[in-house]
Here is the input.
Amino acid sequence: MTVNITKVAGLVAVALMPWAVDVAAQEVGSERDPVAGATAISAAPAVQATALPEASWLSSGSPLGYPAPALYFMAPERLASVTAALASNAPSAGPGEAPTEAATEAPVVERRQEVRTDPWGQRRNLGLAIFEAYLGNFIPWAFNELNPARAELLISQISPRSWWHNIEKGFKWDDNKFQVNFFSHPFQGSIYYTSARANGYGYWTGLLFALAGSFNWECCGETHLMSVNDWVNTSIGGAAVGETLFRASSLILDNEATGTERITREIGAFLLTPTRGFTRLVTGNSTRVFNNPENPADHIPNLLEAFLSGGIRGGDSWREGQGGRLDEDVPVHGYFNVELTAGSLAELERQQPFDFVHTVLQFNLVRGRALGRWEIRGNLWHTDLSRSDESVSKLVVMQDFDYENNTVFEAGGQSVSLMYHARRLFGERSGLAWNAAVTWTILGGVKSELAFLADVEGVRERFREYDFGLGPGFRAGAVYVGDGRRLLDAEYRIHYLATLNGSNREGEDSSHLLQTVRVRGIVPFMYRGFGAGAEYNFFNRRSEFDFMEVGTVRQRAHLWQVFATWYPVRN
Amino acid sequence: MQKRRVSRCLVSLGALVGCLGSAGPAAAQEAQDPLALRFAFGSQQMEGDLGDALDGAVDAEFSLAFPVGPVRVGGGANWASFEMDDQEASWNQLRFHGLVGYALRLTERFRPYAEARITFRRLRPEDDRYFGAEEEELLRDFVTSGWGPEGVLGAEITINRAVAIDVSGAVSTFSLSPDLSSEGLGPIDSGQTWRFHIGVAWFPLTSE
Here is the structure.
């Protein structure tokens, strides 16, 4: 048997082609990865089991002499024939002979079609994404139905009749607790959002999923009338929370890891984004060893800062109106803080939402208010205004998610901002970054004295203590970094909320002007990223109520915290 | 008597599905897609004891199924709201089901199937809380539940490899526990349903 060098070379070229185009596509920043054959990715686990007897091929390079990932972007039947041909040195068909099986593979090149995958190699799968989003509604509904404590609420008695009834009645406002509307719903929305992200889609498709998934729940997942506040918070908040969790799970995942480390990473990612874990499980990517994303922004960004702190906090507040003055204390209590910054606003290159994301989660050791604060800032669009070795200035459109809940005030909401951002370096490891932004609150909430008047159609379950509103605002902030470590940061924010539902009953108007100041100083220790610091927060609210001539109510709150921190920086 | 007849039919259908599944050739295995999702609307008619009290209803159903050998195995849920005969009141029915099914790929476009199901249903007077006092309060709030078999015959008419129109008919029988004597409805403790569905079947893991 003679070796047909030309044919082997041809087969190798065919096999290499997807890889070459794949590399080219990644170089131009495209998410479109060409895949030869319609069933390449979905059938890949079977391919791995049958045609790739040694998994080490993929981690240590292919014995065939071409990049191993090409194997994964090849139709299984062609992969089988290529490997068989190479193994047996199959001769080509001679004149007058029927072509061999391998020879008939040549026209496959013409059948090539493009299959979209994300940087993690996840093929776009609309059906699976919809299924996961649907499961995100089915499971809470089943929980409401089968859990006796939840069944008492009688919200799970759904049927086509209740669906039609809800759609007929349209959107109303609800009276759920602040943490339900401004934390739980966005968290639920993250399930819909990540259903799309986990299946190869980007931010904007994920947002559409969150809108649709939330609408589906509002109309058909419970007998409650549809809540417009739920829809906005679940979808827009869900996109912010979902993308943050998705990015966080990307920090954990490693397609090249094996053994116990791989299992641990996959479980960790599953816990952060169950939809992504599920998708990787059913498509086989959770056990497959293959390349990580080439762009660090998709995996572990070049700038990654974690800020973990714990300590004590306390404060006080007073409110004053026509009826007099009310003083309240925030009892001293323990807390811990998780803060993560991934990516650098100044170094943003591609137009990919949330390549920069900053999030703060604060947990308080206070009964009933365990989650004290959650803040998310992520970029949606950006452009450079100027750039030199020492300084950068740019315009950025940001998505903001805010949630703050303590014993003296509740405030939060979904907003977008147009931000001027500048950074100036002093030497290699020190610098100052500052920003100023005009903001628009799409839907916000703030604790208000007359919110119990809220016009809530349907069954009233409780008296709401906060108003819903929207309006413009402004914020400015600065961060000083010395010797590669954050030393000082400060932020001022002012925003106006015109009440949409709450204290504005019976046509009477109400509004809130909110101001916050946050200043934090950190003293780094010499030892491995440890440090100590203090933070001061000021909250000021000026509410105007037309209702029953209540007039103006002012509130001021001072909150302080002292903490020890560990904040490693990868830069 | 009627209930026994329906039960016998359903057991026979289950046996048929089992036989088809066990004797299924490789071609039959190909007819089972990696994951099947179905969402359908239809009409459900109640007969038997409960049929005397409840009118027919529009219902909705969701199912998913995975291939296990030559058959599909899965589960789902069904929702319906039955109005009561001669009274301004309604009953909510929630039904979970487990299924074993067998699909034949007769042609590229036409795939008839049979399914045997075990159902668990919860019936209760529908709470008026969210319907704006449009109905009279009839009964105290309670839930009665019961098990029963269901047989389904249907067909998938494929639009492409991932999507099909799903048409099916089904009959089921069930027993409730406890009976509803204490609710003033007499010794009602069972019923049969007939239903017809049309919907969409989706095979999300099937390549386009």
Observations:
- Residues 5 and 419 of chain A are 61 Å apart (CA to CA).
- The radius of gyration of chain A is 28 Å.
